[in-house]
């Protein structure tokens, strides 16, 4: 496992929501993996999932009682990315503020980054 390094900034509101989701999915002992994958109208999209396995080249950090995992490959693109959870009259959702994104799409689910060129796809 790579040394501990803060790549993601998880707000208290986001951590509260993640903990709630862990309980709902019976994943209380899991870690939160934050990743970048190809896809979306700007070429890259974010992924978050509960995971039990930590790979040797993963960066691991703990914030607000949540263990966060980011692969070495994704760490450069995600460095200093802030994940928050916003509640409104229309419901709630996670917001991702990535200072490494060159551009984001209109639907807010994908982005472009200089560190990893990707093929743009139509918005769904």
UniProtKB/TrEMBL annotation:
Transmembrane intervals: none
A family per Pfam: Fe-S_biosyn
A biological-process GO annotation: iron-sulfur cluster assembly
InterPro entries registered for this protein in UniProt: ATAP (IPR016092), ATAP_core_dom (IPR000361), FeS_cluster_insertion_CS (IPR017870), HesB-like_dom_sf (IPR035903)
Single GO MF annotation: 4 iron, 4 sulfur cluster binding
Core domain mapped to chain residues: 8-108
Protein name according to UniProt: Iron-sulfur cluster insertion protein erpA
Originating species: Solibacillus isronensis B3W22
Underlying gene: erpA
